[in-house]
Amino acid sequence: MSDDSSPPESEASAVYRRMRRVFGDPSMRSSDARKRAAGARTRGASSPFGAGRDPAGLDDVIDSLTRVMGWTSPLARGELLSAWSSIVGEDVAARSQPVGIEEGVLSIQCDSTAWATQLRMMQGDILTSIVRTFPDAGVASVRILGPGAPSWKRGPRSVPGRGPRDTYG
Fold first, then answer.
1. Maximal CA-CA distance, the chain
2. Do residue 90 and residue 139 come from a single domain?
3. 105-110 β-sheet, strand order
4. How far apart are CA 77 and CA 135, in angstroms?
5. Where are the beta strands (DSSP E) in 18-165?
6. Distances (CA, A) of 50 to 10, 46, 88, 103
7. 143-162: per-residue pLDDT in tens?
8. Domain that holds residue 115
9. What is the CA radius of gyration of the chain?
10. What is the CATH number of the domain that holds 105?
């Protein structure tokens, strides 16, 4: 006989202790409850009232969204086209307008050949101002276009003739 005063452990209590060790507290018996508990431990800052949940400003959110999505260059190009008068001034903007940006080349359409010549002389200053103000636009050069000349072609079966002659003289 042994002098142990503790009663022998029943098989049921041994199974209970083993299950508690394997599966945790009996109040969390369901797998859903275990997932919730594990998620609460890993979630941390994303809990509704946890640390790091201060609201962010809308401008910060939109800036990060445009960076993540890669929209900075198209947005800068659109902003450049809309801010044309602030880049070149009101007088020049009244007589010229940016047509578009393709492959790093900004095309500018002028009202007259005189204004096209004037803008060609200002081309370096315009490009410097654009690169300084809108670096994300990706403008590497500027192409100045004169006014669109009228077409003297009439109909689908037009043949090359002697031209308009002294129309501009």
1. 134
2. yes
3. 96-102, 105-110, 141-145
4. 10
5. 96-102, 105-110, 141-145
6. 45, 7, 51, 47
7. 999 888 766 677 777 777 77
8. 72-145
9. 37
10. 3.30.300.180
Name the pTM for this structure. Answer: 0.55
Domain count, the chain: 2
Predicted confidence (pLDDT) per residue in 48-63, tens digit: 666 666 777 888 888 8
Q: Are residues 77 and 128 both part of a single domain?
A: yes
Per DSSP, the three-state class of 76 is helix
CA distance 107 to 84: 12
Q: Which among 149, 90, 96, 84 is positioned nearest to 121, based on CA atoms?
A: 96
Q: CB of 138 within 8 A of CB of 77? A: yes
- The answer to whether residue 65 sits within a structural domain is no
Cβ atoms of 47 and 53 closer than 8 Å: yes
Structure tokens at 165: 């002659």
In a domain, 64, yes or no: no
